[in-house]
Write a structure and sequence with these properties.
Elements: H1 2-7, H2 10-26, H3 32-41, H4 49-52, H5 104-110, E1 124-125, E2 130-133, E3 141-146, E4 149-154, E5 161-167, E6 169-174, E7 177-182, E8 186-189, E9 197-200, E10 203-208
Antiparallel strand pairs: 1-2, 2-3, 3-10, 4-9, 5-8, 5-10, 6-7, 6-9
Helix pairs in contact: 2-3
Length: 213
């Protein structure tokens, strides 16, 4: 069904999208999927992505939760703020809900249409209030620290690391050098900088390469 939607003629897509949009807006209070279509239509009226959204899983993440999406999985943020880690890539393929070009043949070639809802990750507890979210690929992992943590906590010890202060204030220290961070600020730590320690009054997220020593 998704393949038929994405390969339909532009006029047919707009007609179908408008019909689904009108039906969902009239029934928005009856089901979350209808409300989602109505919300998306405020920004992307007549977009075939409105119809595609009905086929996708609606997943709500609470603060501190994470999920892994494999390559080729259609996904879209609806609202909220999240930290997204990606493997090295030179492409982003769009399926809809955008004014940019949608390369349908490439989309169909790369997309995994296997049905199934993604499972939330089960983090591993570390020192203090730190957690490590591991994923089934070797490219990256996520380490988090929730404060107050006024005393230094050992972060990922080696490899390339990106330290992001999500909330409050934080400090990242390597050797004798300390970088103070406010919410929304980040710092890149090279492998050669050595071990990393972190303090925070809020929340810190560190993207790193697992297995690097």
């Amino acid at each position: 069904a998704l393949v038929l939607l994405l390969t339909a003629a532009p006029g047919e897509q707009r007609t179908l999208a408008r019909a689904v949009q009108d039906a969902a807006q009239a029934r928005a209070a009856q089901h979350p999927a209808y409300q989602l279509v109505a919300d998306l239509a405020l920004h992307h009226p007549g977009d075939i992505g409105l119809v595609v959204s009905v086929f996708l899983n609606a997943l709500r993440l609470e603060p501190g939760e994470a999920v892994f999406l494999g390559a080729g999985t259609l996904h879209s943020y609806v609202h909220g703020l999240g930290v997204e880690l990606m493997a090295t890539s030179d492409n982003v393929v769009r399926a809809g809900l955008t004014t940019k070009h949608v390369n349908v043949p490439e989309l169909l070639r790369l997309t995994d249409f296997t049905p199934g809802a993604p499972a939330k990750l089960d983090p591993r507890a570390g020192t203090g209030s730190s957690l490590t979210f591991s994923v089934p690929v070797p490219d990256f992992a996520l380490w988090t620290l929730t404060g107050p943590a006024p005393d230094p906590v050992d972060g990922p010890p080696a490899g390339a690391r990106i330290v992001l202060c999500v909330r409050g204030r934080a400090a990242a220290t390597c050797g004798r050098h300390t970088t103070d961070l406010r919410a929304g600020e980040s710092v890149f730590v090279q492998d050669g900088d050595g071990p990393l320690t972190v303090t925070t009054s809020g929340i810190v997220a560190v993207a790193h390469q697992p297995g690097v020593r």
